[in-house]
Amino acid sequence: MANLNEIINYNTQILSDFYYKNKEFFNLKLKLLKELNLFNFKDFKIIATGHQPIFYYPNILCKNFFVSKNAKELNMLPLNIVVDTDLFEIKIPVPYKENNKYKINYFEIPNPQNLTFNQFKINLNELEKFFKKIEKSLKTLKIESVTNNFKNYYRNFLKFYKKNENFVDTITQLRKDFEKNIGINLIDIKVSKISKTFAFYKFFFYIVKNIESFSEIYNTQLKEKKFKEAKPLKIDSKNFELPFWYFENRRLNLFLQKNNKNIIFFSEKEKIIELNIEKFSEDEILNILKNRLIIFPKAITLTLFIRLFLANLFIHGTGGSRYEKIGDFIIENFFNLKNLKYIVVTGEISFPFEIDINKIENEFNHKRKILNELLYHPEKFMDDEKRNFYLNLKKELVNKLKTSNDKNERKAIHQKLKNIDIEMRNFFMRQIKSIQKELKENEEILRQKKVFVEKSYPYFIYPLEMDWEKIFSEKSIIFY
């Protein structure tokens, strides 16, 4: 298995060859770095990850830890792409205890207007109600450091939000504060900012110019991989659906119509803009589009853009990596770049309940096995003398059974064999009842397993004393 440095050097080399053969793509990259105020780092290798600005949970933070740690060790620039152009969706699980049983509450911030993260605003009273519900659940756990950690977070959130009334900036800043305290340092870049760059519109227009081949490659791979997370691009005569969102108060699908001289962009609702491509240079067209057409990338085009023009290596979680079944195929067949690598990083981090569910499960299976042996093979637990006595009795009866043709006699022998089993079992009845009681208790806990194995509890409800650096180092799972 190649190590990280080898993968980054490999990607850097094939991207260099790609830029050498495609000067417009090299210029696009340089333009992007300038527009994102990263041009001073143009000679640095970039390692990047990204996610929507939600309440992170530890398995997402594993990616950030991996990027930050390796960027520091290998002298790279660490980026985190904040996907603030996705639809706002916040729903978090929170454990609680009721009648000595553990359960999960799910708390959601509603988004009835289907706004994106960068649009979303929430009333302070509603926000406070949301946090109060979480606090009420956490108090039932009676873990003081958990309650205190959450209270501190929720006070800071309200304080910050009152100042700026920007949900994305608030949730991002508090995450960054938390990360800084545990040694994670990343440069955050919003997708809404990337989408405004001239470089991004150049990428957009390259796909527009070649939409016929892009659509065929995209749809072919979607069909072949039976990929359900994205829909095929609609193609109808000269009309093409584009792999981008058009934004006008809300996200809409964007379509293109091409004829000899004109290109027409239209949404699901109406025509947006029509351009005679013979009248303008490409840069003029891009400036017109940039001023009149607000666009955001869809999931696949976002990672295409980041992997090709910003990062030397992109770090996915398990969710985002699914899209690379399509992304890799497009990179190879549309952009003619083979085997550009990425890495998947996730974790196996669970909330530190006082109950170790894995231990309980192992004990349950072990006890159940012992119980079955006690019930059906009690002789295994007897001393030699007693065991031999009962086994010989059973052997004599079995031999009689083999030679007997009398129905009543056979029935009586079967009953004697059963009675011997019961007699042997009675020697261990105290142990049997004890194990049955323990199994019943374990079974009750295992019915609550969902609570203990849930991996999406937000980081701010974890105890203050968590050694995060140690946990991320030990619990991260990396797929090269």
Structure explained in plain terms:
The chain has helices spanning 4-21, 23-35, 58-74, 124-139, 144-164, 167-181, 191-194, 198-209, 211-224, 282-292, 299-309, 318-321, 324-333, 357-376, 384-403, 407-426, 429-446, 449-453, 468-475; strands spanning 46-51, 77-82, 90-98, 101-109, 187-190, 235-236, 239-247, 251-258, 262-267, 271-276, 295-297, 313-316, 343-347, 476-479. A hairpin with a 3-residue loop joins strand 8 and strand 9 (262-267). Helix 11 (299-309) packs across helix 13 (324-333). By secondary structure, the chain is α/β, with parallel strands linked by helices. It starts with a helix and ends with a strand. The protein folds into two domains: 1-230 and 303-351 and 459-480, HUPs (Rossmann fold), CATH 3.40.50; 358-453, no CATH class. The mean pLDDT is 94. The strands form three sheets. A six-stranded mixed β-sheet has the order 5-2-1-12-13-14. Strands 6, 7, 8, 9, 10 and 11 form a six-stranded antiparallel β-sheet that branches. A two-stranded antiparallel ribbon has the order 3-4.
